[in-house]
Design brief:
Elements: H1 2-48, H2 53-57, H3 60-78, H4 86-128, H5 133-160, H6 165-178, H7 180-204, H8 208-260, E1 292-295, E2 298-301, H9 302-316
Antiparallel strand pairs: 1-2
Protein backbone atom coordinates (compact mmCIF):
# COMPACT_ATOMS: atom_id res chain seq x y z
CA UNK A 1 0.00 0.00 0.00
CA UNK A 2 2.83 2.35 0.89
CA UNK A 3 4.61 1.58 -2.39
CA UNK A 4 1.40 2.31 -4.29
CA UNK A 5 1.02 5.70 -2.58
CA UNK A 6 4.65 6.56 -3.29
CA UNK A 7 4.15 5.62 -6.92
CA UNK A 8 1.07 7.87 -7.17
CA UNK A 9 2.92 10.76 -5.47
CA UNK A 10 5.89 10.36 -7.83
CA UNK A 11 3.59 10.24 -10.85
CA UNK A 12 1.80 13.41 -9.70
CA UNK A 13 5.14 15.14 -9.18
CA UNK A 14 6.33 14.52 -12.73
CA UNK A 15 2.92 15.40 -14.16
CA UNK A 16 2.93 18.75 -12.35
CA UNK A 17 6.58 19.34 -13.24
CA UNK A 18 6.00 18.97 -16.99
CA UNK A 19 2.76 20.94 -16.76
CA UNK A 20 4.51 23.85 -15.04
CA UNK A 21 7.78 23.60 -16.97
CA UNK A 22 7.15 26.63 -19.27
CA UNK A 23 6.32 28.78 -16.24
CA UNK A 24 9.41 27.54 -14.41
CA UNK A 25 11.56 28.46 -17.39
CA UNK A 26 9.98 31.92 -17.47
CA UNK A 27 10.57 32.41 -13.73
CA UNK A 28 14.17 31.34 -14.21
CA UNK A 29 14.59 33.82 -17.05
CA UNK A 30 13.32 36.65 -14.81
CA UNK A 31 15.86 35.58 -12.19
CA UNK A 32 18.64 35.30 -14.77
CA UNK A 33 18.52 39.00 -15.67
CA UNK A 34 19.71 40.32 -12.25
CA UNK A 35 21.91 37.23 -11.87
CA UNK A 36 23.87 37.99 -15.07
CA UNK A 37 24.19 41.68 -14.15
CA UNK A 38 25.36 41.12 -10.55
CA UNK A 39 27.62 38.20 -11.37
CA UNK A 40 29.22 40.28 -14.13
CA UNK A 41 30.00 43.08 -11.68
CA UNK A 42 31.58 40.78 -9.09
CA UNK A 43 33.44 38.88 -11.80
CA UNK A 44 35.09 42.10 -12.94
CA UNK A 45 35.94 42.99 -9.33
CA UNK A 46 37.42 39.53 -8.82
CA UNK A 47 39.39 39.69 -12.07
CA UNK A 48 40.93 43.14 -11.67
CA UNK A 49 40.86 44.03 -7.95
CA UNK A 50 40.63 41.06 -5.57
CA UNK A 51 41.88 37.69 -6.80
CA UNK A 52 39.65 35.53 -4.63
CA UNK A 53 36.79 33.17 -5.39
CA UNK A 54 34.94 34.53 -2.35
CA UNK A 55 34.38 37.77 -4.23
CA UNK A 56 32.21 35.77 -6.63
CA UNK A 57 30.40 34.22 -3.66
CA UNK A 58 29.43 37.75 -2.59
CA UNK A 59 27.03 37.76 -5.53
CA UNK A 60 24.58 35.73 -3.44
CA UNK A 61 23.90 38.67 -1.07
CA UNK A 62 22.38 41.20 -3.51
CA UNK A 63 21.02 38.40 -5.70
CA UNK A 64 19.08 36.58 -2.98
CA UNK A 65 16.14 39.06 -2.89
CA UNK A 66 15.41 38.06 -6.50
CA UNK A 67 15.32 34.43 -5.43
CA UNK A 68 12.29 35.47 -3.35
CA UNK A 69 10.43 35.91 -6.63
CA UNK A 70 11.35 32.41 -7.77
CA UNK A 71 10.35 30.99 -4.38
CA UNK A 72 6.96 32.68 -4.44
CA UNK A 73 6.22 31.26 -7.88
CA UNK A 74 7.26 27.70 -6.99
CA UNK A 75 5.46 27.87 -3.62
CA UNK A 76 2.17 28.48 -5.45
CA UNK A 77 2.92 25.52 -7.71
CA UNK A 78 3.78 23.29 -4.74
CA UNK A 79 0.38 24.17 -3.22
CA UNK A 80 -1.24 22.67 -6.31
CA UNK A 81 -2.47 25.88 -7.93
CA UNK A 82 -3.24 25.45 -11.62
CA UNK A 83 -2.91 28.96 -13.06
CA UNK A 84 0.09 30.64 -11.47
CA UNK A 85 0.77 34.13 -12.81
CA UNK A 86 4.55 34.05 -12.97
CA UNK A 87 5.45 37.69 -13.62
CA UNK A 88 3.06 39.12 -11.01
CA UNK A 89 4.14 36.65 -8.31
CA UNK A 90 7.82 37.10 -9.10
CA UNK A 91 7.65 40.89 -8.81
CA UNK A 92 5.48 40.71 -5.67
CA UNK A 93 7.87 38.24 -4.07
CA UNK A 94 10.88 40.48 -4.68
CA UNK A 95 9.10 43.68 -3.64
CA UNK A 96 7.53 42.33 -0.44
CA UNK A 97 10.57 40.44 0.84
CA UNK A 98 13.57 42.42 -0.41
CA UNK A 99 15.00 43.40 2.98
CA UNK A 100 14.50 40.02 4.61
CA UNK A 101 16.05 38.14 1.71
CA UNK A 102 18.99 40.51 1.73
CA UNK A 103 19.59 39.37 5.31
CA UNK A 104 19.08 35.72 4.29
CA UNK A 105 21.64 36.22 1.52
CA UNK A 106 24.17 37.45 4.07
CA UNK A 107 23.52 34.36 6.21
CA UNK A 108 23.85 32.06 3.17
CA UNK A 109 27.16 33.74 2.23
CA UNK A 110 28.46 33.26 5.78
CA UNK A 111 27.38 29.60 5.72
CA UNK A 112 29.15 29.03 2.38
CA UNK A 113 32.37 30.65 3.60
CA UNK A 114 32.30 28.75 6.90
CA UNK A 115 31.60 25.41 5.23
CA UNK A 116 34.24 25.90 2.53
CA UNK A 117 36.99 27.03 4.89
CA UNK A 118 36.33 24.51 7.65
CA UNK A 119 35.93 21.47 5.40
CA UNK A 120 38.95 22.27 3.23
CA UNK A 121 41.06 23.10 6.30
CA UNK A 122 40.25 19.91 8.21
CA UNK A 123 40.77 17.74 5.13
CA UNK A 124 44.27 19.20 4.78
CA UNK A 125 45.05 18.82 8.50
CA UNK A 126 43.66 15.29 8.69
CA UNK A 127 45.73 14.04 5.75
CA UNK A 128 48.95 15.81 6.74
CA UNK A 129 49.04 16.06 10.55
CA UNK A 130 46.64 13.83 12.50
CA UNK A 131 43.61 11.63 11.96
CA UNK A 132 41.96 13.44 14.90
CA UNK A 133 40.98 16.22 12.50
CA UNK A 134 38.63 13.80 10.76
CA UNK A 135 36.37 14.23 13.81
CA UNK A 136 36.33 18.00 13.31
CA UNK A 137 35.80 17.43 9.59
CA UNK A 138 32.73 15.31 10.35
CA UNK A 139 31.36 18.01 12.66
CA UNK A 140 31.91 20.64 9.95
CA UNK A 141 30.06 18.51 7.40
CA UNK A 142 27.14 18.02 9.82
CA UNK A 143 26.94 21.78 10.40
CA UNK A 144 27.00 22.36 6.62
CA UNK A 145 24.12 19.88 6.22
CA UNK A 146 22.14 21.70 8.92
CA UNK A 147 22.69 24.95 7.00
CA UNK A 148 21.45 23.21 3.85
CA UNK A 149 18.31 21.84 5.51
CA UNK A 150 17.52 25.22 7.07
CA UNK A 151 17.83 26.79 3.62
CA UNK A 152 15.00 24.52 2.45
CA UNK A 153 12.60 26.40 4.75
CA UNK A 154 13.91 29.97 5.10
CA UNK A 155 12.81 31.27 1.65
CA UNK A 156 9.41 29.53 1.56
CA UNK A 157 8.52 30.45 5.12
CA UNK A 158 9.47 34.09 4.52
CA UNK A 159 7.32 34.54 1.40
CA UNK A 160 4.35 32.65 2.90
CA UNK A 161 4.02 33.82 6.50
CA UNK A 162 4.21 37.16 8.26
CA UNK A 163 6.57 35.96 10.98
CA UNK A 164 9.39 37.69 12.79
CA UNK A 165 12.91 36.87 11.64
CA UNK A 166 13.55 35.22 14.99
CA UNK A 167 10.63 32.82 14.51
CA UNK A 168 11.55 32.15 10.88
CA UNK A 169 15.05 31.03 11.86
CA UNK A 170 13.84 29.16 14.93
CA UNK A 171 11.20 27.23 12.97
CA UNK A 172 13.64 26.52 10.15
CA UNK A 173 16.19 25.09 12.55
CA UNK A 174 13.56 22.96 14.28
CA UNK A 175 12.41 21.57 10.94
CA UNK A 176 15.95 20.59 9.97
CA UNK A 177 15.53 17.83 12.57
CA UNK A 178 11.76 17.39 12.82
CA UNK A 179 11.25 17.03 9.05
CA UNK A 180 14.30 14.85 8.42
CA UNK A 181 12.54 12.51 5.98
CA UNK A 182 11.35 15.34 3.75
CA UNK A 183 14.76 17.01 3.97
CA UNK A 184 16.35 13.83 2.63
CA UNK A 185 13.81 13.74 -0.21
CA UNK A 186 14.66 17.35 -1.13
CA UNK A 187 18.38 16.57 -0.93
CA UNK A 188 17.95 13.54 -3.18
CA UNK A 189 16.06 15.68 -5.70
CA UNK A 190 18.88 18.25 -5.70
CA UNK A 191 21.44 15.46 -6.11
CA UNK A 192 19.63 14.17 -9.22
CA UNK A 193 19.45 17.71 -10.62
CA UNK A 194 23.18 18.21 -9.99
CA UNK A 195 23.93 14.84 -11.57
CA UNK A 196 21.97 15.75 -14.72
CA UNK A 197 23.71 19.13 -14.98
CA UNK A 198 27.15 17.61 -14.41
CA UNK A 199 26.49 14.97 -17.07
CA UNK A 200 25.42 17.64 -19.56
CA UNK A 201 28.54 19.70 -18.87
CA UNK A 202 30.82 16.66 -19.01
CA UNK A 203 29.46 15.64 -22.40
CA UNK A 204 30.23 19.10 -23.79
CA UNK A 205 33.96 18.87 -23.21
CA UNK A 206 35.75 22.21 -23.54
CA UNK A 207 35.17 25.30 -25.61
CA UNK A 208 32.07 27.05 -26.88
CA UNK A 209 29.70 24.12 -26.26
CA UNK A 210 30.53 24.15 -22.56
CA UNK A 211 29.85 27.90 -22.34
CA UNK A 212 26.53 27.55 -24.17
CA UNK A 213 25.27 24.66 -22.01
CA UNK A 214 26.37 26.45 -18.82
CA UNK A 215 24.47 29.56 -19.90
CA UNK A 216 21.35 27.51 -20.72
CA UNK A 217 21.43 25.77 -17.33
CA UNK A 218 21.89 29.05 -15.48
CA UNK A 219 19.44 31.14 -17.48
CA UNK A 220 16.57 28.71 -17.91
CA UNK A 221 16.78 25.67 -15.63
CA UNK A 222 18.70 25.39 -12.37
CA UNK A 223 17.38 28.04 -9.88
CA UNK A 224 13.66 27.56 -10.61
CA UNK A 225 13.84 23.76 -10.84
CA UNK A 226 15.88 23.69 -7.62
CA UNK A 227 13.28 25.81 -5.83
CA UNK A 228 10.46 23.69 -7.23
CA UNK A 229 12.09 20.44 -6.05
CA UNK A 230 12.60 21.82 -2.55
CA UNK A 231 9.07 23.17 -2.22
CA UNK A 232 7.48 19.98 -3.53
CA UNK A 233 9.37 18.04 -0.86
CA UNK A 234 8.89 20.27 2.19
CA UNK A 235 6.30 22.99 1.57
CA UNK A 236 3.02 21.26 2.48
CA UNK A 237 4.30 19.89 5.78
CA UNK A 238 5.90 23.24 6.65
CA UNK A 239 2.64 25.06 5.87
CA UNK A 240 0.51 22.72 7.97
CA UNK A 241 2.90 22.83 10.93
CA UNK A 242 3.10 26.64 11.00
CA UNK A 243 -0.65 27.16 10.59
CA UNK A 244 -1.43 24.50 13.20
CA UNK A 245 0.94 26.19 15.63
CA UNK A 246 -0.61 29.61 15.02
CA UNK A 247 -4.14 28.23 15.39
CA UNK A 248 -3.17 26.48 18.62
CA UNK A 249 -1.75 29.71 20.07
CA UNK A 250 -4.90 31.59 19.07
CA UNK A 251 -7.01 28.91 20.79
CA UNK A 252 -4.95 29.18 23.99
CA UNK A 253 -5.23 32.98 23.96
CA UNK A 254 -9.00 32.71 23.55
CA UNK A 255 -9.27 30.31 26.51
CA UNK A 256 -7.21 32.63 28.71
CA UNK A 257 -9.44 35.53 27.69
CA UNK A 258 -12.53 33.46 28.54
CA UNK A 259 -11.17 32.71 32.02
CA UNK A 260 -10.41 36.38 32.64
CA UNK A 261 -14.02 37.14 31.72
CA UNK A 262 -15.32 34.51 34.14
CA UNK A 263 -16.27 31.99 31.45
CA UNK A 264 -15.41 28.51 32.74
CA UNK A 265 -16.29 26.53 29.62
CA UNK A 266 -15.20 27.05 26.03
CA UNK A 267 -17.54 26.80 23.09
CA UNK A 268 -16.78 24.15 20.49
CA UNK A 269 -15.26 25.66 17.33
CA UNK A 270 -17.76 25.92 14.55
CA UNK A 271 -17.10 24.19 11.27
CA UNK A 272 -16.15 26.57 8.51
CA UNK A 273 -18.82 27.52 6.00
CA UNK A 274 -18.86 25.21 3.02
CA UNK A 275 -19.84 26.88 -0.26
CA UNK A 276 -22.49 25.47 -2.53
CA UNK A 277 -19.92 24.26 -5.07
CA UNK A 278 -18.10 22.17 -2.44
CA UNK A 279 -19.46 18.94 -3.90
CA UNK A 280 -17.68 19.71 -7.16
CA UNK A 281 -14.26 19.29 -5.52
CA UNK A 282 -12.43 16.22 -6.75
CA UNK A 283 -10.79 14.31 -3.89
CA UNK A 284 -8.48 11.41 -4.73
CA UNK A 285 -9.42 8.62 -2.30
CA UNK A 286 -6.31 6.61 -3.24
CA UNK A 287 -4.09 8.91 -1.18
CA UNK A 288 -3.50 9.00 2.55
CA UNK A 289 -6.31 10.63 4.52
CA UNK A 290 -3.81 12.71 6.47
CA UNK A 291 -2.29 14.38 3.43
CA UNK A 292 -3.09 18.05 2.86
CA UNK A 293 -5.02 19.64 0.00
CA UNK A 294 -4.89 23.31 -0.86
CA UNK A 295 -8.54 24.48 -0.72
CA UNK A 296 -10.01 27.95 -0.40
CA UNK A 297 -6.67 29.55 0.46
CA UNK A 298 -5.72 27.01 3.14
CA UNK A 299 -4.08 23.62 3.53
CA UNK A 300 -6.79 21.22 4.73
CA UNK A 301 -6.47 17.54 5.61
CA UNK A 302 -7.93 15.21 3.01
CA UNK A 303 -9.92 13.36 5.69
CA UNK A 304 -11.46 16.63 6.89
CA UNK A 305 -12.53 17.58 3.36
CA UNK A 306 -14.08 14.16 2.81
CA UNK A 307 -15.94 14.37 6.13
CA UNK A 308 -17.25 17.88 5.40
CA UNK A 309 -18.26 16.86 1.91
CA UNK A 310 -20.26 13.94 3.29
CA UNK A 311 -21.83 16.18 5.93
CA UNK A 312 -22.86 18.66 3.26
CA UNK A 313 -24.57 15.93 1.26
CA UNK A 314 -26.48 14.74 4.35
CA UNK A 315 -27.59 18.28 5.22
CA UNK A 316 -28.93 18.84 1.72
CA UNK A 317 -30.88 15.57 1.88
Amino acid sequence: MSAEKNSVALSNFFTNLFHNLPKLLFANLLFAIPFAFLFGIFYLVQSYLFKSIFVLFLTVIPLFPFYAGVTQVTAHMARGEEDVEVFHNFIAGVKDNFGRFLFHGTVVFAAIVFSYFSISLYITLATSISGFFYVLLAISIIIAIIFLFAFFYLPSMTVTFDLSMKNIYKNSMLMTFGEFKHNLIATFGLFILALICATALFCCGDGIALIIVTAILGLFIVPSIMSYLINCAVYNNMYSMITSSKNKMAEIDQKLENRRNGQLFDAEPEMSFIPDDFNEIEIDDSKDGDEYIFYNGKMVKRSVLIKQKQQTKEDKQ
